Each structure stands twice: as structure tokens, then as C-alpha cells.
Amino acid sequence: MKTVIQRVSEARVEVGGSVVGRIGPGLLVLVCAMPADTTATADRLLQKLLKLRVFNNSEGKLDHDLANVDGHGTAGGLLLVSQFTLSADTHKGNRPSFVGSAPSAQARALFDYLVGQAKLVHPDVAMGRFATEMQVHLVNSGPITIPLDIH
Known about the structure:
Blueprint: E1 2-15, E2 18-23, E3 26-32, H1 39-51, E4 55-56, E5 62-64, E6 77-82, H2 104-121, E7 125-127, E8 135-149
Parallel strand pairs: 3-6, 6-7
Antiparallel strand pairs: 1-2, 1-3, 1-8, 4-5
């Protein structure tokens, strides 16, 4: 799975002017399923997201994970947004090709699985709406933006 992770002080997803997902401090994760991805890939991604130490400790070092964003045991939010355009191939011409992403049915199943598993183990999970025109609003904190590929 290809992802872009952004540490945020807040983020929300709107569809048609209505908020469908919102978090405070935490991680906004854009997620693209690839053809070889399986539920095991999604499990590895979730474990990485939960343990990624990108929140500051009292000395300003990146030392805290999503379960402890403020150093006092406060869990941060996790906003998952399906983003097939992360598979863009721009080597030929000026129009990106997205043929490298997983087929829609597979991508939806993996995204739904990832969200479901996240909700089982983390207290604050929100999501965008699959295959829908969304407006993603965020305040990137840091800024910290990390591309991550999980195979």
C-alpha cells in the first residue's frame, strides 16, 4: 500500500459541503491500494501507523506515537482517506496514468478492512468516503509529511 502520512493539529473531510470525517491532533493518512496488496499488507500498515513516532516529547524530539501524542497518554486521531492517485505514473506524457492501482473492488475491500481493523484497536478513527469527490482540509503540524510504501 502506498501512503502519505501527515501529522496534523486538525483535519476533516467534506463531501458535498458536509463533514464526513474529522480529527483533532493526529495523523491524516492518504491510502492507495496496489494490486499485490492483501489484508496482511493492511495489517502491517496499521501496525506501522500506530507505532510511528512522529509526535514531540518534552524536548521537542519525535518520540511519541499515536497512542501518546502529548506525552500524557492522550490518543491522537487517525483519519484514513482512500487516494488512488498515489499510484500515478507520470513517465510518459503529461497526463498521469493510474493503471498501477488496485482495481476498485479490491481497493474498496482493503480500505474497508483497514478502517475496520483500525476501529478495533484505536479509539479515534475517522475516514473519508471511498470513490467520492472529497475536500480534505488539514493543518499540517511541523510540517511533517512522510511517504510510506508497505509491501
